[in-house]
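PROTOCOL LOG
Step 1. Enter all chains and additional molecules of the complex.
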Amino acid sequence: LPLCRCLISKAEVQGFIERCMIAVGTKPHHARSLAEVLVEGDHRGHYSHGLNRMDMYVKDIQTKICEKDGEPVVEKETAATALVDGKNLLGPVVGNFCMNLAIKKAKDVGIGWVVARGSNHYGIAGYYAMQALKENMIGMSFTNTSPLVVPTRGKECTLGTNPISVAAPGENNDSFVLDMATSAVALGKVELHERRGDPIPEGWGCDAQGKLSTDPKKVLSGGGLVPIGGSEATGGYKGYGLGMMVEVFCGILAGAQYSNNIRTWKVTDRVANLGQCFVAINPQNFAPGFNQRMSDLMSIQRGMEPADPDRPVLAAGDPERTNMKKCDEMGGIPYHINVVKYMNECAEKVGVSPLLPCDNLISN
Ligand SMILES: NC(=O)c1ccc[n+]([C@@H]2O[C@H](COP(=O)([O-])OP(=O)(O)OC[C@H]3O[C@@H](n4cnc5c(N)ncnc54)[C@H](O)[C@@H]3O)[C@@H](O)[C@H]2O)c1
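Step 2. Run joint prediction.
Step 3. Record the structure below.
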């Protein structure tokens, strides 16, 4: 049977998320920031960080575990650095505040390095790194997250999926956009396999004894995800090291929660107090010709003869670019009908109308 998908325009999703967030008391400009990040996640094809997660943010505001009022505050500052108290506001509100500040500093002194404590889940890391591209700068963003990853040789989750994003501008609006979790895969992918009753490939997760497992049930109950690289023999300790690096920049530098002190994923019994890091670097302060060399660097990779003629060599950011182009040609983002129905049910509970339209069905 063809998968039934429902095509919804970006503007409709944006408005819908804003209405739901405002209905539970979020300030309109905070709701707009959140909606923009989530829509961007879906547009780029990362459905695990888009509309699908809206109910989590609605619940965070409803239960008052996340603040709906106030603005982030700069606690400490130099020309190039800042420590920000996110005041337990929505992650994208904190993220935008910090990234704007980092960009401003990079304009003034060549680099801006801003860390935040007291933040919350901020969606796709790439959203913030990519803001720097608009100013022709390099952007970076990192966040710590609830523990889901078991370190090499361990058997307990003590690190999050701690994503890394680095965006660098080339010529003619082209760019390198690396945006990746430091776990081999996202938890959602393991959950999907479990629901379908399929085994997972080796190197995604381990069981409660810390042994790599292809059984998604074992990974989800007592086990955990493993770092990029998988087992020790295949370099998993490098992914483990990158996850630790993210903590250095986030939880440790900002004095936020870190490692297994961070609350359990989806258990909102206490505030998250996540640590996040936002960096902008102005290439103009370095060797001239940055954009040309960036484009050349990407051309070398993209232009080579691929191992499989049907699968060209890509640069980071290309798969998402292809996805956005496909959406734009279709005139919207294709959502699974069950996701749309579920989100509409959530919206009805908080008294929102109009709901997401369900009439534009496509099969693919
Ligand atoms: N806020 C959070 O708590 C949190 C935690 C984890 C992940 N995330 C987000 O989840 C999203 C998905 O992360 P992921 O690790 O599953 O991403 P992914 O594995 O789909 O992609 C990772 C990176 O690899 C690039 N890529 C993919 N295929 C490629 C190829 N063939 N050649 C070259 N480059 C290629 C992509 O462009 C991307 O930059 C990211 O946006 C991330 O920020 C957020």
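Step 4. Note key features.
The CA atoms of residues 89 and 265 lie 18 Å apart.
The chain has three domains: 4-14+16-65+332-363, 71-182+228-323, 185-225.
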